[in-house]
């Protein structure tokens, strides 16, 4: 069934396959009156572009975005914003046995069982290129959030077992792994080089820090703010886990430690710690929101692997071509985008939560 | 805004507060023709009842479910199934300073900022009693899944830092902590007793094993099967993290290890390992589905805690009364319920995925 | 599949069968802070009660509503409002051949083909009693609308071919047919008496006048305000048509007449006529919103009718018992309720339409 | 808020403005395995093209559709089908006072009040060109319906007060007004010529006949099949009313006449009449489904009209340029498209209505 739409107030629908004519996104329900140009979006798309270092594929993906609708004279109009990136490189080639093989770690087998057929070119819909639409929509939402004083910032927390240690956000863009710690980035590079020598791949953890969200955002039950963030993040291909605040570590501690104490500071309610990651009972508590997700190692590796094909024959495959040995650095902006969409949507949702808000709005 | 409904085909809407007249759930879109009686549901509700051991509160919650609609002569009719549990114990009492305090680790502050007011009795809507509706709906979905050969089984994986070691599912119901390992259960009890002596509380990890789901279930993008399961689990109060298959450990391994090899066995496609946890690219791969979630320590503790109240005064509170020192054992059935709802919904969603399915259905 | 929920921001879900234990509604997404008591809702439910005249059935339906959740200390809390009316009269009786017959003009045959079984008692889910939930939710929405200066008022426009002529809204509640014209009401009564003598039934037209809705409400494409109103009205059993403003008459006129001219009046944009019925391009134009719906004659009549039963045998049936010879007067409040829900939902939806609204809201 | 998406299982989202870069539609949830090429869709788009007679505008709208995603090797893949038509003629021109005037009968005023700004070029989002996306999606759904034995056929029922009399569907495409009655078409042409001489415009009624839908399709409450059809039709610009079966005429008749008698014929349940228009209680009754909608006269006329502009100045405007004196003939295919989408979606929705369907599906 459907499932390419995310959001309650702002509805983001992505479409497109890796090697089809184009990929894109429709953002419906986005408010009128935001200055928006293609450059605002391109900035984000460029961050997910490959070929920026030896750890990302060297494909020449231009990925130039066009705004097809929803913007008039440089301002959003309130009607659906349609964004498109044309695929430059869609000439058919010989996919050999990859066309019918179930690549280990990929969705090929599931797609065949689900749909009876599949677009095998570059993974089709399950390709990482699907995230182009997410990133484009995220750029738009992030621009609105900025006007509300909210910043969304993701970075690499670890690659393999190399974790960041000294956190310095200003360092994030100074290394090709998006790590806010140059020493860790150095070690992670060494780790990745060893992987590559071995024709193998690595995973990692991405963390996202969201600042400026007031308390009271999110809904009590199934649409808890962290539940929506979790869906948003796990819906990114290769994500195998998500944590809010202390995450799994919280399961090992005690209430007396894990409970963040409330105190007053300059007339504001503050917390003395942030084990909660900025969300309590599914609703923002005014503190920084901190979420993390685990990315598995890139499944496409050039080592020989045992598998099965569509004819149910046992075969061995080697997956050559342009594949990132680790997708973590390129997924950082995708995580940022999904968080921006989720937070933006929840903040709009809050505006109808109280009768006095509504009366104030309609008072004239 | 709204947010009390979950599901695409089967829509589950819970309602009710801890100390209101009643709590319940409406299940819309549930198919006609399932034999269903109150006993089927009560069985599940009894598993989340308190007072079953010294580690769960001793409140006398009867929690008798009534089927109010959607069942005729013992069979579901296809129309909304309305289930209700009346609150027996709703007499008002003196909540003292708890009525206006922002209890650390609770959603009180978020509710006030969101809604401007709140039902402070027993946590109101943010109470664990909200899960009554989820468990009731989960029981109904689990019964349908059983007819399709799917079983959903959750258990305690760890309490504090005590993990299960020898996995024996048949032991789960032989100890009050729902641990499928009697030795670990013993150690966990000791750990909890130490917590209680200290007026403190503990957390833990719950794992859910879902067997019998064919390959091809789930949707490619935002409604990936694991993304929906993640929303479902993180929407349970106190859950701070979720993992699918190897989860965060996958981020530290390599592609050559993490990729599950496909092979043929008795004419069926099988995998030689299950690092994926039964889901690849958001779609079931035919293997057991394995998800896990982290539960934080119960925030209500009787130690004195610093906090702030609605008048923004700094105060100290002690939360006395009947509170579980650990909610993990009672949350096991809630996890099972949410997984059952999610899987059942996704399996129904798959039925319209192919034109040949549709033509076969309408062929007469 | 599901289909018992209506609304985008305020989600109204009805449940219950004619002769089940109870009927009710869950209103999710309703804002916090509205004073609300059972009396507010009972007022509306009493208007749809039978037994108020010789033209409505004399069943003793008490239909006392209970608020089960979402209201604390007389004020809505922002969490789901669950409302229930218990069925007093659910003792089983002998339905004779009605239990298996496909009553002409009823949904019996469709239900059997759809679900394979049905609750035949009193029409089950397809009974007019399902509207109890709608009316209860409508009462809540109408109360909020009132605080925003919006009034929703429905009345009988015609019964059979007896139309109102001199419109005087103050007369609506002075006759049992809800006609705002006492002369027409008199004639309609005579018409109905002739029907009843003949063991026959009648239909009619209900009009709803909605005042105070500012311009700018509704959405451009599928959720046009009139499209949502049309779904809302046609979803009421027995409605076979709907009109906005001049409706079908507009198809016979010309642009020069049908176009309402805009002019200024006391600094406000006004229209010199209202052929549009207050909605242009799916968006309110600031004028009174006027919608109308056609109600078919009550299908249950005591004349002998040819039909077929579940065994596909041709039979004759006479439907005795308590049935309204015309449901129009009792449906008036249902029309009002559905309009109130739709307008209220659309007005909340408008609050996020502009970036400047959002910045103003979050400015602090 | 959002509102550009229609459908429960098949979700159709249109985007685009009259004079933007392009217009299009994303169809999510469409099943895999349908042969589909651009020609299938172009056939429908060509039917809504202008310039086909003197009663439709002579703009050279090429309106060539491209399939951007969701089709691989000529077959749908189950992933979102993205369809686009580029706007050839988007050069800016001088709109004069039209740019700021509230054209009578148009949505201009509503848009300004709603969004604070608007794309005034050609009506922007409120242009009839938005229906390109609907027609494209309708073509895809109609192709699937055809494989299920369902045909959807709309035609002009009346223009002004000229109604069809002798119904002969084979004549529909032999006149420029899509009237299945050549004599009526002749008279309607004369009527339109008189309108045009007067610089005026006309409306009309479109009827749609849907054959082959089995009994049991549609849902009992808010998503009644006729309620969804009503939303679908009234969401088309200029539609001011909708009828199912006898529609408003049903309000004047009696139960004994309006009730369709059920009988057996060749082992099948049939009805001896079809006053219901194929839908009873919101569920298809196996008979032809008949719906009708009223189209208002084209609001753009070249007569001088009084109105107001964005500066709230009273002005007179004449709307010159290429405008259909009647949009009815071009709207016929739009009506067909919306009905096809609605019926297709409802038929897919029915597949999960019964436990025995589900067990049969998953039996292997």
Protein traits:
8 helices; Chorismate synthase, AroC fold; 18 strands; 364 residues; 5-stranded antiparallel β-sheet; homotetramer; 26% helix; globular; alpha+beta
Structure explained in plain terms:
The structure is a homotetramer of 364-residue chains. By secondary structure, chain A is an alpha+beta fold. The first copy, chain A, has a single domain, classed as Chorismate synthase AroC (Chorismate synthase, AroC fold), CATH 3.60.150.10. The first copy, chain A, is 26% helix and 23% strand. In chain A, the strands form 6 sheets. In chain A, strands 1-2-3-7-4 form a 5-stranded antiparallel beta sheet. In chain A, strand 1 (5-6) and strand 2 (11-16) form a beta hairpin. In chain A, helix 1 (38-48) crosses helix 3. The N and C termini of chain A lie far apart (44 Å). At the A-B interface, strand 1, helix 2, helix 5, strand 11 and helix 6 of A face strand 1, helix 2, helix 5, strand 11 and helix 6 of B.
Write the layout of secondary structure elements.
The structure is a homotetramer of 364-residue chains.
Chain A: E1 5-6, E2 11-16, E3 22-28, H1 38-48, E4 65-69, E5 71-72, E6 75-76, E7 81-86, H2 108-115, H3 131-147, E8 151-159, E9 162-163, H4 182-197, E10 204-211, H5 225-234, E11 239-244, H6 255-258, E12 262-265, E13 268-271, E14 279-280, E15 283-284, E16 289-295, E17 305-308, E18 314-317, H7 328-350, H8 355-361
Antiparallel strand pairs in A: 1-2, 2-3, 3-7, 4-7, 5-6, 8-9, 8-10, 10-16, 11-16, 12-13, 14-15, 17-18
Helix pairs in contact in A: 1-3, 1-7, 3-7, 5-7
């Amino acid at each position: 069934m459907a499932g390419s739409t995310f959001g309650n107030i702002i509805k983001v629908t992505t479409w497109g396959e890796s090697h089809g004519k184009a990929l894109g996104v429709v953002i419906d329900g986005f408010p009128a009156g935001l200055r928006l140009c293609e450059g605002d979006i391109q900035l984000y798309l460029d961050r997910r572009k490959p070929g920026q270092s030896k750890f990302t594929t060297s494909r020449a993906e231009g990925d130039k975005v066009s705004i097809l609708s929803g913007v008039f004279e440089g301002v959003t109009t309130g009607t659906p914003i349609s964004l498109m990136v044309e695929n430059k490189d869609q000439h058919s080639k010989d996919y050999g046995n990859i066309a019918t093989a179930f690549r280990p770690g990929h969705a090929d087998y599931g797609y065949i069982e689900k749909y009876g057929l599949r677009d095998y070119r570059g993974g089709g819909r399950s390709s990482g290129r699907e995230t182009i639409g997410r990133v484009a929509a995220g750029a738009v939402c992030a621009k609105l959030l900025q006007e509300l004083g909210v910043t969304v910032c993701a970075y690499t927390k670890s690659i393999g077992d190399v974790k960041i240690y000294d956190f310095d956000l200003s360092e994030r863009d100074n290394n090709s792994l998006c790590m806010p710690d140059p020493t860790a980035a150095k070690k992670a590079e060494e780790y990745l080089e060893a992987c590559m020598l071995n024709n193998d791949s690595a995973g990692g953890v991405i963390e996202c820090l969201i600042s400026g969200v007031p308390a009271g955002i999110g809904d009590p039950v199934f649409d808890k703010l962290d539940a929506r963030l979790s869906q948003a993040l796990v819906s990114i291909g290769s994500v195998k886990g998500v944590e809010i605040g202390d995450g799994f570590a919280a399961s090992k501690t005690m209430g007396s430690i894990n409970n963040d104490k409330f105190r007053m500071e300059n007339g504001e309610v503050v917390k003395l710690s942030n084990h909660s990651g900025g969300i309590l009972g599914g609703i923002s508590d005014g503190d920084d929101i901190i979420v993390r997700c685990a990315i598995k190692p890139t499944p496409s590796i050039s080592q020989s692997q045992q598998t099965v094909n569509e004819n149910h024959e046992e075969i061995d495959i080697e997956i050559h071509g342009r594949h990132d040995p680790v997708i973590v650095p390129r997924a950082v902006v995708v995580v940022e985008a999904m968080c921006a969409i989720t937070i933006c949507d929840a903040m709009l949702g809050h505006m109808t939560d109280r009768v006095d808000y509504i009366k104030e709005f309609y008072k004239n």
